[in-house]
Amino acid sequence: MPINFRKPIVKTSFFLLLLVQFASIEVRAQAVWESPKHPVNAFLSRQAQKGNIEIADFILPLNRKSIAINLSQLRDSVHKLSAIEVQELSFYEQDYSEFNKNLRDSSLFLKKDQHNRWGMFSVKEGDLILRVDPVIGLETTQGLEKSILKQSNGLKFWGQKGKNISFQAYFTENTETGDGIDSIKQFNNETGVIRTENLNKNAKMLNYTNFRGNITYSWENGSVSIGHDQLLWGYGENGKLVMSDKAPAYPFIRLDYQVLKWLKFHYAHTWLQSAILDSNRTYGKGNTIYGDERELFVQKFMATHSLNFFPAKGLSFSIGESIIYSDRIDAGYFIPVMFFKAYDQYSSRYKINSGSNGQFFFQAASRNHLKNTHLYASLFIDEIRMSAAFNNQKSRNQLGFNLGGSITDVLIPYLTMGMEYTRINPFVYQNLIPAQNYTNQNYTLGDWIGQNADRVTAWIKYNPIARLSTRIQMDYIRKGEDGSITDQYYAEPQPKFLTKRIDTQQQFQFEVKYQLLNELIIKASYYKQAGIIRPALQQRAIPQEFRLGISYGF
Asked: How confident is the model at residue 391 (pLDDT cuts 50, 70, 90)?
């Protein structure tokens, strides 16, 4: 009998809303989610590294309320900050002024508010707050056989009503024109794009959109969001092992709950795009305009949850699980506390061709236990045979890990130096069922270097004056051949790490960025590359290039 799978979604969402309603006696905070690329994230991360605040920024995005609370804590201990940090603190406080109790009712258009923040349109009337801003960007890239102009325009708004409801939306249309356009954006740390199918390798124009949105219900110790965005998990300077911003945004339901002061629970259910046509559901549409078939894709979903422990100031440990499943929605994965692997075995009757693709992940991090130092380590287990983990003939250690650290205020205030190593074994992110690969829109959900690869990243960051950030970054990447499905499931011993063909790539980048106004950023960068990994994934080598851009609202 056909099953209506929409009803479990509605029922589950309603149940979650009822749960948080009765779980909260005193509702206090709204949750508008801030972009992980906003400079305030780097500012707060460095302050946590110095022990001035505590912040769980390995799960992103953060909400504006938690950012405002951390800024307030820094204001209370302003004597610990340098002159540049005090200036930056005052600057960021303007951006998060909606939580100030003395905020007056007002309706402003192209004016500064009472906290000296400029905006296109803002309203404060009783318990309603609304802010609207344009999103505009212009960037040029110049290099050997490369001359690209990127134009972006759009709109974003966010607001909150009452004590517990918040909403936000963001949309941009982006157009790249010129020579040397990277139309696939695969083997780099840029977010992937959805491009037209008939775009050829030497295309001189690329058009794509970015859109995000959330409606959030918040209470004193947590929040539930229904939205379309990227959810990031884990630390990483040039890529995140567990969940990164490489894949385009996707719809989701997100739950965050601060169970205890030292324990936080995170859950999300996401709707992914398999990019695989479902021939059984595809049907004729009765005309031949743009083809004669209505094309439908194999449905794809992911559920993930984690327990995050904070036993001492600056110390955190996390354990999490995720499952990627396909074909139809499954209400079992809407239960936040469900043990996904056990449920998969139950629903698939222990048959591998009926089951789903599960993963486990772990992280540990330390801040300021060594003065001004941040140390972290992540482990991602796609598959492991514990009984033979150390048996070279029988082991199936399909896992990845990263180790990293940085120290700030080295020799002079605001100078930060760091290094990170990431290794991803063969077959990680890959599954025998293509619709259950660890991807969205054919872009990995994890680290962009993919399986059978490793990377060493070193960086230096320095702010010579307030809001002017400089960064030097160097990367050395090695990548072997992707393993076949047959080898993944049958080869004994498993193919070793970095065997057969090995490509290498060295990268150097220098970037300068200045935040002129709260939403206005000017940036310039120089990039140089030696070697190329998978020309088919990069389209062409990049000996060197220069970028200059200005943006408002990004």
From this structure: low
CATH number of the domain encompassing residue 173:
2.40.160.130
380, 359 contact by CB (below 8 A) = yes
Does the residue 348 lie in any domain?
yes
CB atoms within 10 A of CB 209: 13
Question: For the residues 478-482, what does the mean pLDDT come to?
Answer: 93
Residues 248 and 193 sit within 8 Å (Cβ to Cβ): yes
* Residue pair 71/93 in contact by the 8 Å Cβ criterion: yes
Provide the pairing of β-strand 263-277 with 165-179: unpaired
CA dihedral 40, 83, 100, 119 (to 10 degrees): -60
Q: In one letter, which amino acid is 63?
A: N
Would residue 443 count as lying in a domain? Answer: yes
Q: Under 8 Å CB-to-CB from 72, ≥6 apart: which residues?
A: none
Number of residues that make up the chain: 554
Rg (C-alpha) for the chain, rounded Å, is 24
pLDDT above 70 covers what percent of the chain? Answer: 90
Distance CA 470, CA 512 (A): 5
Is 15 strand, coil or helix? helix
8-state DSSP, 201: T
Overall average pLDDT of the 4-13 stretch? 41
Domain enclosing residue 188, as ranges:
6-159+167-552
Please name the residue ranges forming H helices in 125-253. none
Average pLDDT of 427-455? 96
> Residue 122: which of 160, 152, 154 has the closest Cα?
160
Q: Strand locations in 144-282, DSSP E?
A: 146-161, 165-179, 205-219, 222-229, 232-233, 250-260, 263-277
Asked if the structure places residue 1 within a domain, the reply is no
Residue at 147 is within a domain: yes
Average pLDDT, the chain: 89
Instruction: Give me the number of domains the chain comprises.
Output: 1
Q: Which residue has the tokens 């209400």?
A: 331
User: In terms of pTM, does the model score above 0.85?
Assistant: yes
Phi, psi of 14 (to 5 degrees): -65, -40
